[in-house]
C-alpha cells in the first residue's frame, strides 16, 4: 500500500514539475493560429486584471475633500515632458478656486521609479493649490494610470481632467471645462470632454481631419479624445464598473465594427500589446451605450491642449517628433463667442458626417 502511494506521489511530482512546464513552454508550437490568438488574449487580460484591481492604488487618497478642480497628471519616465506640462499648468487661470494637482508616477515592470521624473515632480512648486505626488507601488501600465487615478464619490461635484505627460495646456483650459461641464453634464449621452483641437476621423476609409461645420463651437463625437480628457463623473463611474466586470469575461473583446481603432487593437492582439490601448474599452462602452465625447471646434483647430508626440508607448521612433513641434496650436486668446454654446451640440459620426438625426 505504501509503495502504491509513493508511486502516485512520484507521478504527480513528475507531472507538475516536468510535464506541465514543458507543455506550457512548447504547446504554442502545436496550436492552430486561432488558438494562439486566444491564448495571447487570455494572458493579456490576466495582466490587465492584475494591473487594474490591486487595492493598493485604487484608494481615493484625498478625494474625500471638497475641491473645484482635480488635475490628474500621469507619467512614467519622461521628466522633461513632465516639467513642460507642469509649467503650462502654472500659468493657466483658475479664478482663485480650490485646485488639487495629483501627479501619478508609474513604475517599470521590475518595480523601479525613474529618479529624475520623481525629482521633477517633487520639486515642482504649484502656485494655485495643493500638489500631491503618488508613486505607484508596482507597475500599473497605462490602464492603471487612466482608470484608477480618479475615483470620485457618487455625490462628488468636482471637475477632473486627466493629462498624459507629453501635453501642454492652454491658459484657458479650466475656463473651458467649467463652461462645458455646466452646460452638458446633465445630458446622459455625454461621457466627457476632450481638450484636443485636432483629430483624425476614425471610420475605415475616411480621410482628412475631424471638424464640424463652421459656426459650431462644439460637437459630439463617438470616439474619446485622450489628449486631455475630463470625464462626466456619472458616466465615468458607470464605465469603470462595467470594465471591471467585463475583464473577467475570457471570451470578450472590445471590438467595434468599421472603425480604425478596432484594426489597431486587433493588431495589438496579434503582437501581444493590448496593454497599450485602454481607450478601446472606452470606445466600445460608448458605442454600446450610445455615448459621445464633447469636442471643441475652434477655428484653425486650436486646442485647449497640444501633444508633443514624444517617443513612448503611443509613438515609436518612426512616429515620434521628439518634443520638437506640437501637434497643432494652443488657444491663447479667449473670445466671448466661445461661451455661446448650443443646448444640444451637433453630432458627427466616425466619418465626420453630421448624424442623420441632426440633419435639417
UniProtKB/TrEMBL annotation:
This is Glycosyltransferase 2-like domain-containing protein. The chain crosses the membrane at residues 6-23. Keywords: Membrane, Transmembrane, Transmembrane helix.
Amino acid at each position: 500500500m505504501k509503495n502504491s502511494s509513493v508511486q502516485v506521489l512520484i507521478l504527480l511530482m513528475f507531472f507538475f514539475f516536468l510535464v506541465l512546464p514543458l507543455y506550457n513552454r512548447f504547446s504554442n508550437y502545436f496550436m492552430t493560429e486561432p488558438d494562439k490568438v486566444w491564448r495571447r488574449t487570455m494572458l493579456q487580460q490576466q495582466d490587465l486584471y492584475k494591473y487594474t484591481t490591486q487595492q493598493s492604488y485604487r484608494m481615493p487618497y484625498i478625494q474625500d475633500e471638497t475641491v473645484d478642480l482635480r488635475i490628474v497628471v500621469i507619467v512614467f519616465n519622461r521628466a522633461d515632458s513632465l516639467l513642460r506640462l507642469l509649467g503650462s499648468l502654472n500659468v493657466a487661470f483658475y479664478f482663485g478656486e480650490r485646485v488639487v494637482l495629483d501627479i501619478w508616477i508609474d513604475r517599470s515592470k521590475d518595480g523601479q521609479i525613474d529618479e529624475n521624473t520623481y525629482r521633477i515632480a517633487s520639486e515642482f512648486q504649484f502656485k494655485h493649490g495643493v500638489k500631491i505626488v503618488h508613486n505607484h507601488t508596482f507597475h500599473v501600465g497605462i490602464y492603471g494610470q487612466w482608470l484608477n487615478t480618479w475615483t470620485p464619490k457618487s455625490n462628488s461635484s468636482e471637475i477632473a481632467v486627466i493629462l498624459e505627460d507629453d501635453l501642454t495646456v492652454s491658459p484657458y483650459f479650466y475656463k473651458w471645462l467649467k463652461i462645458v461641464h455646466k452646460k452638458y453634464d446633465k445630458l446622459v449621452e455625454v461621457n466627457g470632454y476632450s481638450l484636443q483641437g485636432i483629430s483624425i476621423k476614425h471610420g475605415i476609409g475616411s480621410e482628412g481631419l475631424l471638424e464640424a461645420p463652421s459656426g459650431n463651437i462644439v460637437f459630439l463625437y463617438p470616439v474619446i479624445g485622450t489628449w486631455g480628457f475630463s470625464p462626466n463623473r456619472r458616466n465615468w463611474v458607470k464605465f469603470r464598473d462595467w470594465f471591471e466586470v467585463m475583464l473577467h469575461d475570457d471570451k470578450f473583446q472590445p471590438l467595434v465594427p468599421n472603425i480604425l481603432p478596432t484594426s489597431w487593437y486587433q493588431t495589438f492582439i496579434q503582437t501581444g500589446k493590448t496593454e497599450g490601448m485602454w481607450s478601446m474599452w472606452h470606445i466600445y462602452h460608448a458605442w454600446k451605450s450610445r455615448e459621445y465625447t464633447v469636442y471643441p471646434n475652434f477655428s484653425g483647430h486650436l486646442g485647449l491642449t497640444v501633444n508633443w508626440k514624444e517617443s513612448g508607448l503611443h509613438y515609436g521612433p518612426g512616429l515620434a517628433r521628439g518634443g520638437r513641434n506640437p501637434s497643432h496650436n494652443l488657444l491663447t486668446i479667449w473670445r466671448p463667442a466661445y461661451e455661446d454654446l448650443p443646448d444640444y451640440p451637433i453630432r458627427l459620426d466616425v466619418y465626420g458626417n453630421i448624424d442623420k438625426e441632426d440633419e435639417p
